[in-house]
């Protein structure tokens, strides 16, 4: 498979462009700062690059690899999980959709955001993940019950991520409404929105399609165990 699109290797593309200030490593391999994200990538499939990637696997949470093609794993890597996903993109939004009252989220909401993400597991979420981009949320009686925001940012693209709703408040359209706002803001900046979904989660993919996202390519998400 020929990989020549920035989104074929979104982690590498983000850490060598707009999010380079969050990168740990060098020209052979990079990973996000440990408090921000799980993701890492080697520059290529060479031995030098994969060995450098192995040296970056220093967190007990391990590392997450997001690749459209086959990339060799670091030497000695132990795979905790591997999942077939799809990468979806949107250059416009479909009309319609429910509107909900929402508010911007920031440092004062960080603990609640982490707690909600820990409960619902929309994806890896750490102490400073909320600083990767703009987040918005729905609060009920002053309590955060749903949120959505931005994560990886290769040149010209921003990932919609962190979408989750407290189990007691599902079925009210919060996720779709917040995603619509986040996506519209990305498009208004002249960028293209993208996201990732598990390939087996057809209901979630169908929801994203109603918003205007389309499947661009299969993606493999691999989580490696951290050091023993």
Automatic annotation (TrEMBL):
<dbReference type="Pfam" id="PF08445">
    <property type="entry name" value="FR47"/>
</dbReference>
<dbReference type="InterPro" id="IPR050680">
    <property type="entry name" value="YpeA/RimI_acetyltransf"/>
</dbReference>
<dbReference type="GO" id="GO:0016747">
    <property type="term" value="F:acyltransferase activity, transferring groups other than amino-acyl groups"/>
</dbReference>
<dbReference type="InterPro" id="IPR000182">
    <property type="entry name" value="GNAT_dom"/>
</dbReference>
<keyword id="KW-0012">Acyltransferase</keyword>
<dbReference type="InterPro" id="IPR016181">
    <property type="entry name" value="Acyl_CoA_acyltransferase"/>
</dbReference>
<protein>
    <recommendedName>
        <fullName>N-acetyltransferase domain-containing protein</fullName>
    </recommendedName>
</protein>
<feature type="domain" description="N-acetyltransferase">
    <location>
        <begin position="100"/>
        <end position="228"/>
    </location>
</feature>
<dbReference type="InterPro" id="IPR013653">
    <property type="entry name" value="GCN5-like_dom"/>
</dbReference>
<keyword id="KW-0808">Transferase</keyword>
């Amino acid at each position: 498979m020929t990989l020549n699109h920035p989104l074929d290797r979104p982690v590498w593309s983000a850490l060598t462009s707009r999010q380079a200030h969050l990168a740990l490593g060098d020209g052979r391999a990079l990973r996000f700062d440990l408090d921000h994200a799980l993701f890492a990538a080697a520059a290529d499939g060479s031995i030098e690059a994969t060995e450098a990637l192995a040296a970056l696997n220093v967190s007990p949470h391990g590392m997450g690899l997001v690749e459209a093609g086959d990339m060799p794993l670091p030497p000695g890597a132990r795979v905790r999980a591997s999942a077939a996903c799809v990468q979806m993109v949107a250059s416009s939004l479909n009309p319609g959709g429910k509107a909900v009252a929402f508010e911007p989220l920031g440092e004062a909401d960080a603990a609640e955001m982490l707690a909600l993400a820990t409960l619902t597991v929309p994806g890896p979420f750490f102490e400073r993940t909320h600083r990767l981009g703009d987040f918005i949320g729905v609060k009920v009686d002053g309590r955060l019950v749903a949120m959505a925001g931005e994560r990886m940012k290769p040149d010209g693209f921003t990932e919609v991520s962190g979408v989750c709703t407290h189990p007691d408040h599902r079925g009210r359209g919060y996720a779709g409404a917040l995603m619509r706002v986040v996506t519209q803001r990305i498009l208004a900046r002249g960028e293209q929105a993208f996201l990732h979904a598990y390939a087996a989660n057809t209901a979630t993919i169908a929801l994203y399609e109603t918003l205007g996202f389309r499947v661009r390519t299969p993606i493999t998400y691999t989580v490696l165990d951290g050091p023993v």
